[in-house]
Amino acid sequence: MQTRSKRPLTLRDVSEASGVSEMTVSRVLRKKGDVSAATREKVQEAARRLGYVPNKIAGALASQRVNLVAVIIPSLGNMVFPEVLSGISEELEGTELQPVVGVTDYQPEKEEKVLFEMLSWRPSGVIIAGLEHSDASRAMLKQAGIPVVEIMDTDGEAVDTSVGISHRRAGRIMAEEILKAGYKRIGFMGTKMPLDHRARKRFEGFTQTLAKGGVEIADQEFYSGGSALAKGREMTAAMLRRTPDLDFLYYSNDMIGAGGLLYLHEKGADIPAKIGLAGFNGVELLDGLPLQLATMDACRREIGQTAARIIAARNAEGASDEGQVVELSPTLSFGDTLRTN
Amino acid sequence: MQTRSKRPLTLRDVSEASGVSEMTVSRVLRKKGDVSAATREKVQEAARRLGYVPNKIAGALASQRVNLVAVIIPSLGNMVFPEVLSGISEELEGTELQPVVGVTDYQPEKEEKVLFEMLSWRPSGVIIAGLEHSDASRAMLKQAGIPVVEIMDTDGEAVDTSVGISHRRAGRIMAEEILKAGYKRIGFMGTKMPLDHRARKRFEGFTQTLAKGGVEIADQEFYSGGSALAKGREMTAAMLRRTPDLDFLYYSNDMIGAGGLLYLHEKGADIPAKIGLAGFNGVELLDGLPLQLATMDACRREIGQTAARIIAARNAEGASDEGQVVELSPTLSFGDTLRTN
DNA sequence: CTGAAAGCGCTAACAG
DNA sequence: CTGTTAGCGCTTTCAG
């Protein structure tokens, strides 16, 4: 139908091909304003025949509106963020808005760069992971004059609005359950990530609550890089060699927890009677393990949905420009690796 | 530093604040053309102080250039695509270009929508998964007048350029190795995905090669939804109940393969002597399993890098506008679940 | 090295 | 219901 052409088609081409003014063509193509069925048909036919694709750059400049929501996350390989994203997409599906993703690799400088880059496209809103940002990033977010939702975490001060869980509380709850179940000699394994503030907060909540119960972490180890499953396996083996009397292992994520679980299960360990295990995230991926790992879900999908809903609402007319804090409650699953007491 | 303002800052604001013409401000901010050190300093100081973020919409419209590469993939939850993406990002890092991701959920209509949407931003290139697209999508890709690289697969005709592996050949190679190892009673498990053409092609290559060796698939089962690990476990159990004399199980992806592996390992099956297993993808994630699953890597990262490099090269001056086919060679790993002879 | 003028392709705001 | 007139904020081009 179309002919090869170096220059992309413009509204004017459609206008000429259909004998209708540019303005009316624009109305038809945007389904905005009333146009008679006859001309509408003529225009659509011409547009289709030519293979016209509107130029959003020009449209956005003229209308001063860009229906994009910038979504800024640390990583895609983490399993948790794709789920947040699908919550966002799902929720935005019914609206004009579209998510655009930027990845920071947990680096504040990269976050700053990505944020700057995305804001320069003048999006209608920003959804960004975490509450910890560089001063420059916070300044940009404030200055942008658009709704900003910081997600995943509520332990801290948001620029505008935050949606997430309290990781301190999550660590605390896990510690309480472990104590309640009567475990005493507790080991911790996690990522060596000074910049993963949420893991850090969980760890803090965890150790502080143990301390209140008169228990101290008996051993701990941090890793970085490599296959998480393999790392969990190795670290668990090493830790039990070093501190054989541990009766509970708390992992900062489910993947290393699964590695530990597989290792102990093979060794014929008496789980959860003699040794208990728990991870974090509620990764559905792991459902087929020999034992179900105790874990705590982080409400990933729900966080995405809620954040997206807030942005969408604020973009609608007559929205209250108020910031808010939405704290979701993670649910603990005991699985097969934490005594229910 | 900045003041609250509803209206985002413009070049004119920076111009007024620095007492330098808009044009020269623009030159400084884009580091284009020669500007005296003194004025450059003045401009940069003003821009920083005000918190100016350039408006790329306006810039793109004026310059007729958008440094975006549209990347269109079926899914983010698949583990394989995030790796392709990181190959792309890595390769684009050194250039002006930036990837923008769109997800199709394996649905041709959604692909068409996403493609239309992305093309309307006039990107500098398109990287799109697969060779199978609707007529409309192919038309748009041809019409766009920008480099288009179809990735993952080379079994078929590309619009412009393709980079990937031959999935037919991958299936064939696996079949050859299985026959060579002397397995005879072979079961297949995979996703119920009429739209996953690559899985289909592997399956075809696999069965055709078995047939040449006088072997027919003894049993097969397809699933959809749910946790892949759990599905692999269940399907394996069911299949062996139904067809107990199977001596090899070929899985269309590593996750269900891992489920089967865990199941059989727990049952104390004699792997790989009495029963062999193989998956597909080379998912590093699974490195900590009790046995290493035989698999074939799909060159995910390398595909991303190559595709990005091609787009970048074509965007440089004096590039040959030629389409090409880049077929990469997947490597087979025997792991612990496929007899080496 | 710096500035002035003229759009990029589309849509808001008015007229008819 | 349809058309006309101005820009949107930046960059290209051409003069100084």
TrEMBL record, chains A, B:
The keyword rRNA-binding does not apply. InterPro entries: HTH_LacI, Lambda_DNA-bd_dom_sf, Peripla_BP/Lac1_sug-bd_dom, Peripla_BP_I. GO terms for molecular function: DNA-binding transcription factor activity; transcription cis-regulatory region binding. It comes from the Bacteria. PROSITE patterns: HTH_LACI_2. Keywords: DNA-binding, Transcription, Transcription regulation. It holds the Pfam family Peripla_BP_1. Residues 9-63 form the HTH lacI-type domain. SUPFAM superfamilies: lambda repressor-like DNA-binding domains, Periplasmic binding protein-like I. Coiled coil: none annotated. Gene3D superfamilies: 3.40.50.2300, lambda repressor-like DNA-binding domains. The keyword Transcription applies. PANTHER family: LACI-RELATED TRANSCRIPTIONAL REPRESSOR (PTHR30146), TRANSCRIPTIONAL REGULATOR (PTHR30146:SF33). This is LacI family transcriptional regulator.
